[in-house]
């Protein structure tokens, strides 16, 4: 898989997202927008990825529109799940029905699967406990689940399908 090869390119701006994150992090840590800090952020954003290029993997091209849409979906789901978990914990809902869910993976793309597991964990009420690459699934613990197949299908449709679109894997590696 091309995305698993180490980056041997020689450009100065081969990892723009990493460069931007480093520069913004520097500015946040310095808590200043003075010219010296802006120049430092620019240099850090350019030099650090260049120095690390032998250790970094080649970036995957992504669809930014789909990434923004998924971000909005995840943020909305986090808000709704927080409210649901709060109601469950504070007692206005009926007794919780915890469950272990086996969520089959639709592709072998490591970034997609890692992000899928991370999104599941970020959403209150669910925790991805194991990404079982041998069994090609993620084991998820749900705090309250009355419809296991429906919950699995919802996670796959809302998150995994979007991640596959973002990383241009539409229709690839489907199981």
Q: End-to-end span in angstroms?
A: 18 Å
What is the helix content? Answer: 40-55%
Overall 3D geometry?
globular
Spatial strand sequence of the major β-sheet: 1-3-2
Q: Give average pLDDT, whole number.
A: 85
> What kind of sheet is the major sheet?
3 strands, antiparallel
How are helices and strands ordered from N to C? HHHEHEEH
Output the radius of gyration: 20 Å
**How many distinct beta strands?**
3
Number of domains: 2
The low-confidence runs, each spanning 5 or more residues with pLDDT under 50, are none
Proportion of beta-strand residues? 5-15%
Structure characterization notes:
The chain has 175 residues and is mostly helical. The chain has two domains: 2-52, no CATH class; 64-166, no CATH class. The protein has five helices and three strands; from the N terminus they run αααβαββα. The chain has helices spanning 16-30, 35-52, 64-90, 110-122, 148-166, and strands at 99-104, 126-132, 137-142. Strands 1-3-2 form a three-stranded antiparallel beta sheet, covered by helices on one side. Helix 1 runs antiparallel to helix 2, helix 3 (64-90) packs antiparallel against helix 5 (148-166) and helix 4 (110-122) crosses helix 5 (148-166). It is globular and about 60 Å long.
């Amino acid at each position: 898989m091309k995305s698993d090869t180490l980056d041997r390119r020689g450009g100065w701006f081969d990892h723009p997202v990493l460069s931007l994150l480093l520069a913004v992090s520097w500015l946040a840590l310095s808590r200043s927008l003075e010219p010296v800090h802006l120049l430092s952020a620019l240099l850090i954003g350019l030099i650090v990825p260049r120095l690390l290029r032998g250790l970094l993997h080649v970036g995957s091209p992504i669809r930014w529109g789909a990434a923004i849409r998924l971000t909005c979906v995840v943020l909305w789901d986090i808000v709704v799940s927080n409210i649901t978990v709060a109601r469950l914990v504070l007692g206005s809902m009926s007794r919780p029905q915890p469950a272990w869910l086996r969520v089959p993976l639709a592709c072998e793309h490591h970034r997609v699967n890692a992000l899928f597991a991370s999104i599941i964990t970020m959403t209150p009420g669910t925790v991805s406990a194991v990404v079982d690459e041998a069994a090609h699934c993620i084991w998820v613990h749900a705090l309250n689940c009355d419809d296991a197949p429906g919950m699995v299908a919802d996670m796959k449709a809302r998150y995994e399908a979007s991640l596959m679109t973002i990383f241009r894997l539409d229709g690839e590696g489907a199981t």
